[in-house]
Amino acid sequence: MRKLLALLLVLGIAYTTGALELMAQDGGEDTRTGFQLLKQYFVQGDWRFMSFVLVCLILGLAFCIERIITLNIATTNTDKLLARIDENLKAGDVNGAMEVCKSTQGPTASILYEGLKNTSKGPDAVEKAIVSYGSVQMGLLEKGLVWISLFIAIAPMLGFMGTVIGMIQAFDRIEAANDLSPNVVAGGIKVALLTTVFGLIVAIILQVFYNYIVSKIDSIVNKMEDASIALVDVMASNNVFNK
User: Fold this and answer.
1) Which region holds residue 46: left if phi is over 0, alpha if psi is between -120 and 50, else beta?
2) Does some domain include residue 11?
3) What is the CA 123 to chain-centroid distance, rounded?
4) Residue 230 belongs to what domain range?
5) Structural domains counted in the chain
6) What is the pLDDT of residue 39?
7) What is the pLDDT of residues 48-62, one digit of tens each?
8) Which end of the chain has less Cβ packing within 10 Å, N or C?
9) Distance from CA of residue 118 to its chain's centroid?
10) Do the beta carbons of residue 46 and residue 16 sit within 8 Å?
11) Judging by beta carbons within 10 Å of its beta carbon (0-12, 13-18, 19+), is residue 150 exposed, middle or buried?
12) 56: which residues sit within 8 A by CB, 6+ positions away?
C-alpha cells in the first residue's frame, strides 16, 4: 500500500510539474493534445487550489486500488471450498477440513475455519463463532472506505472554495478598476468555474470506484453468509456434532 501510494504521489508531482512548465510555452498554432489542454486548465484554475484537488484524487485512487486488489484476492470459490470440506467431513477428518480452510485465501475460508474449530462444542458454538468472526472480517473488508468517502466529500468542497475565492478576486478587480467590462472579471470567474469543475470530476471518479468497491464487498459478504449456513448443514448431514 505504501509503495503504491508513493508511486501515485510521484506521478502527481510529475503531472503538476508538467502543468507548471506549460505556463512558459509561447502561443502559435494550437496543436495541443487533450492532456496538454487539461494541464493548461489545471494551471489556469489556480494551482494553489487545484493542487489540493489533485492530492485528493491521488490519495483517493491509492485507497481505491488497494481495496480493489485486496477484495479480488479475498474472492473465493465457495462451492469448491464447501465441496472439499464436505469430502473431509464424510471421511470423519475434521482436521483435514480445517487444513483446507487454512490453505485457502479469503475471509470466507477464515470464517469457516473458525466454525470448524468449535465443532466439539456443538452447533450453537459453531454458529456463534461464525457470527463473531464474521463481524471481524466485515471490518477488514470495509477498511479504508471512510477515507475514500472523505476525499469524495473534500474534493468538491475545495473546488467550491476556489469558486468563492475566484469570485472575490473578480469583485476586487471590479472595485480596483471601477469598470464592469468582461476583461476585468473574466479571469476571476474562469478560476471559479475551473476549480469547481475539477473538484466535481475528482468526486465523480472516486464515487464510481467507491460504488464498485461497496458492491464487491456486498457480494463477498453474501457469499460468506451462504457458506456459513451451508457449513452448518454440511456438518449436521455428516453427523459431525454426534461424534
Assistant:
1) left
2) no
3) 37
4) 77-141+222-242
5) 1
6) 62
7) 777 888 888 999 999
8) C
9) 35
10) no
11) middle
12) 151, 154, 155, 158, 202, 206
The average confidence (pLDDT) of the chain is 77
For the question of whether the overall pTM of this predicted structure is more than 0.85, the answer is no
Q: What is the Rg, in whole angstroms, of the alpha carbon atoms belonging to the chain?
A: 27
How many Cβ atoms from other residues are within 10 Å of residue 102's Cβ?
Answer: 12
Tell me whether residue 23 is in a domain.
Answer: no
Q: Helices 47-74 and 2-22 sit at what angle, rounded to 10 degrees?
A: 150
Distances 194 to 75, 80, 152, 166, 189 between C-alpha atoms, Å:
40, 52, 18, 10, 9
Amino acid identity at 82: L
The end-to-end CA distance of the chain, in Å, is 46
Residue 173 lies in a domain: no
In this prediction, residues 31-59 reach a mean pLDDT of 70
Mean pLDDT for 186-197 is 72
Instruction: Look up cell 485528493; give the residue.
Output: 56
Which grid coordinates are listed for 231?
457449513
Taking the CA atoms of 11, 14, 19 and 20 in sequence, report the sign of the dihedral they define: positive
